[in-house]
Amino acid sequence: GKNAMPALAADVEAGETIFNANCAACHAGGQNVIMPEKTLEKEALDKYLAGGRNSAAIVTQVTNGKNAMPAFGGRLDDADIENVAAYVMAASEAGWDE
User: Fold this and answer.
1) In whole angstroms, how far apart are CA 95 and each of 19, 40, 52?
2) Which of 6, 17, 72, 90 is least enclosed by beta carbons within 10 angstroms?
3) Torsion of CA 14, 33, 52, 72, to 10 degrees
């Protein structure tokens, strides 16, 4: 039916669980404890993320790492990383105000 989700639709709720387990040590509440200006806020993602604020750019950085951020490509599978990216997109859109 028309309400069916695409087969590979990223899952924001699953992404939140993965974020809390793997990312929140440095990025709790969308912040960055290592480089305080490079937060996961909407404006900072637009400014600092290679490729700008979009799911593909988040997937690339999470997979490969950058600077102080480790690569998660060997620790999380592709679907998990896609879900984390969806969560970061949704949370940054909402202003991380949960």
Assistant:
1) 16, 9, 17
2) 6
3) -50
| CA separation for the pair 48, 68 (Å, rounded) | 14
H helices of 1-98, in order, are: 12-22, 24-27, 42-48, 55-64, 78-94
User: How far is residue 75's CA from residue 71's CA, in Å, rounded to a whole number?
Assistant: 8
Task: Identify which of 56, 55, 64 has the alpha carbon closest to the alpha carbon of residue 92.
Answer: 55
30-67 pLDDT, tens digit per residue, is 999 999 999 999 999 999 999 999 999 999 999 999 99
Candidates 84, 70, 63; CA nearest to 34 is 70
User: CB–CB of 92/41 below 8 Å?
Assistant: yes
